[in-house]
Every structure is written in structure tokens, then in C-alpha cells.
Design a protein that fits this description.
single chain, alpha+beta, M1 Pyruvate Kinase, Domain 3, eight-stranded mixed beta sheet, two-stranded antiparallel sheet, 6 helices
């Protein structure tokens, strides 16, 4: 795996249900490296700190593998890296193999896989259709958020080097599917609740399904 594109965005005004809001989802490739800070990417825009940024959502990674699928579904969009609001477009990233809790070296930064992306209406704004939320969940490859263990710079071309594989076998895709499953698989549920790399509030919410 390696970084194909580093992406940042400026705050963009949108209208949602008659209300004017701002979003940082309109990210575009930059020729500059990204500086991964503890709770955000330096010089990137975050409109709502309640749902973006912070310890467990400091930086968002999305795989190039999925662009072909989505381009076919939405051929009339102006496609470029960063379309999903990701800070890092990564070549060859596979959510069926990456575990929650895996630790990677990217450039001079050290990061830990913390959780999948859960889509909100702002993804629908960028794609011009709220239908993509249902499609995104059904497709099941959501990209990953990371926690920044050591701040550092990431350049396009930098490799993702696995430093430490999580002892907990829960993959990003398994957890994403668990979140939206009406019937929660008990084995997967227990893996999630026992996974200390996940935000504690998410683990607590899942206990009711045991």
C-alpha cells in the first residue's frame, strides 16, 4: 500500500433542509505533504468537530480500488482523488484485511486504525444524491479513520508500513457490517466490544446487543 494522493479542502457553504451550513467534504489533491496532528490534518477544514476530527477521526483514508465502482454509478461527476472526503487516497488498501487496531508507519507519522467511516448527508451533497448513503452502506467498503500516535508528515508516494498487527482479529469491513446489521453476529460483536482501539462510546453502545 502507498499514498496516491494527499487531499485537503476549504469550508464550503451548502444548503440542507432550508438551512445554510458548511462542510469540509470537498477535498482536492494537493502537491504538498500532509501534516498529521493529534486531532486533525494541518490546514484542512473541518466544519463540525462533533462528527469529524478528534482523537479517533484525525485523518481519513480511502482506497483507490473502489473508485472504478463508484465512477460507473456516478459517471457525470467531475472525478478526482478526494471525492469521498478522504485526506489520503491509498493504493491497494483492503478493508477485509485491515484490522481495527493495526498500527502503520506512513511517512514520518505513526497511526492506528480506529474505525470505518459512517456516511452522512454531506457525502450525498458532494455526490448530488442522498441515495449514495444507502449504496455506500450496501457496498461495504467505507475507508478508515486513524488515530495519530506520532505526528508527522505524509507525502504522496509514501508507503503504509505495518508496524504492529492487532491481536484482535476484527477487520474494518466486519465492524462496518456489524454497525448496520439488524441481527448482530455475536462473535463479531464480542470482538468489537473487546477491541480497545475502538472509541469507548461505540463499544458501550454495542453491549446492548449481547
Amino acid at each position: 500500500m502507498h499514498v496516491l494522493s494527499t487531499n485537503i479542502g476549504e469550508l464550503t457553504k451548502i444548503t440542507w433542509n432550508g438551512e445554510e451550513l458548511y462542510t469540509g467534504i470537498f477535498k482536492h489533491p494537493t502537491n504538498l505533504p500532509l501534516v498529521l496532528e493529534k486531532e486533525k490534518v494541518a490546514n484542512d477544514s473541518i466544519a463540525d468537530r462533533k462528527v469529524h476530527g478528534g482523537t479517533y477521526k484525525a485523518c481519513y483514508l480511502f482506497s483507490d480500488k473502489h473508485y472504478t465502482y463508484w465512477k460507473k454509478r456516478y459517471p457525470n461527476l467531475n472525478w478526482d482523488w478526494g471525492m469521498f472526503g478522504e485526506n489520503l487516497t491509498v493504493a491497494g488498501m483492503d478493508e477485509t484485511k485491515i484490522r481495527i487496531g493495526d498500527i502503520y508507519k506512513i511517512g514520518s507519522a505513526l497511526v492506528q486504525i480506529s474505525q470505518p467511516r459512517e456516511p452522512c448527508f454531506k457525502l450525498g451533497i458532494r455526490f448530488g444524491s442522498q441515495q449514495i448513503l444507502k449504496e455506500f452502506i450496501e457496498y461495504g467498503f467505507p475507508g478508515v479513520y486513524v488515530q495519530i500516535l506520532e505526528e508527522g508528515q505524509v507525502f504522496s508516494g509514501d508507503k503504509l508500513i505495518l508496524v504492529s498487527a492487532s491481536d484482535n482479529l476484527l477487520t474494518v469491513r466486519q465492524f462496518f457490517q456489524l454497525l448496520y446489521a439488524k441481527e448482530k453476529d455475536q462473535k463479531t460483536l464480542k470482538l468489537a466490544i473487546e477491541n480497545s482501539a475502538l472509541p469507548e462510546y461505540k463499544r458501550e453502545r454495542l453491549k446492548k446487543y449481547l
